[in-house]
Write a structure and sequence with these properties.
Glutaredoxin, alpha+beta, 3 helices, 38% helix
Length: 76
């Protein structure tokens, strides 16, 4: 099972879509909400990213936005 981190915010509709999608695939993930977690904000800035959602899957390049096709390729 791959380690999945989803960076989200409270007001992002695509973040909800990503979470719903992963739950529908029974894929466990850790949510890092940049609205409430300063460390999560710093992690994204350090990566040079300023938009959400960001899906970080162990062993793969970060996915920016809700890219269902790319998620399907990785998690099946």
């Amino acid at each position: 099972m791959k380690n999945i981190i989803v960076y989200t915010s409270n007001t992002c509709p695509y973040c909800k879509m990503v979470k719903d999608y992963l739950q529908s695939k029974s894929m466990p993930f850790q949510e890092r909400n940049i609205s409430t977690d300063v460390e999560a904000q710093k992690e994204l800035i350090k990566k040079g990213l300023r938009s959400i959602p960001v899906i970080s899957i162990e062993g793969y390049e970060d996915i920016i936005g809700f890219d269902r096709y790319r998620l399907d390729q990785i998690i099946g």
